[in-house]
Write a structure and sequence with these properties.
It contains six helices and five strands; from the N terminus they run ββββαβααααα. It is an alpha+beta fold. The chain has two domains: about 55 residues, Thrombin, subunit H; about 100 residues, Up-down Bundle (Methane Monooxygenase Hydroxylase, Chain G, domain 1). A five-stranded antiparallel sheet has the order 4-3-2-1-5. The protein is globular and about 55 Å long.
């Protein structure tokens, strides 16, 4: 069970803060919902309280884990030479876990592939989504701005690119 003000991650959407709890009647059934305020895009999401375990809602990572995310971004990319459709499905599976370390691997590997060979349209959208997921969680964990985090992530990835050449 989560509380108002908790910082949580909703897989495939990113991190947010539980702003309120509401009860809504849908098809004659009253359910309780967490209302999440997402820092990126000022979006609000309603998540059924009785479904949080199935969805994979979890608390955000701590500051020490942020460094682990940056370490993953610094690691050598895992090259997946299968066709774009298989790569896309594999990366989507990683992102659906809601595990920030898996999402970081998706960002690292797709960024490298984009630099080397280019990405399909679907993979480009996935890279943008994965970066936003990382940024939203790191922002809530560290109180850094989205811009600062994006700059730092780009710096890490670009330094890594020079080393991998």
């Amino acid at each position: 069970m989560f509380n108002l003000g908790d910082k949580v991650v909703y897989p495939m959407h990113g991190a947010g803060i539980i702003e309120t709890m509401e009860s809504k009647e849908i098809l004659g059934e009253v359910k309780n919902y967490y209302v999440l305020k997402m820092p990126i895009g000022e979006m609000k999401l309603m998540i059924p309280v009785d479904n949080v375990d199935n969805i994979g809602l979890r608390n955000i990572i701590d500051v020490e884990s942020v460094e682990k995310v940056y370490d993953i971004l610094r690691q050598k990319a895992e090259i997946n030479d299968s066709n774009w459709n298989k790569r896309y499905r594999d990366n989507l599976t990683k992102m659906k876990t809601g595990d920030i370390f898996e999402v970081a691997k998706v960002v690292r590997d797709l960024t490298y592939r984009d630099r080397e060979k280019g990405l399909s349209t679907g993979e480009k959208k996935m890279l943008v989504s994965a970066k936003q997921m990382l940024i939203s969680e790191i922002a809530l964990s560290t109180d850094m701005s989205s811009e600062e985090i994006m700059e730092y992530m780009d710096k890490i990835i670009n330094e890594d690119a020079l080393e991998q050449q």
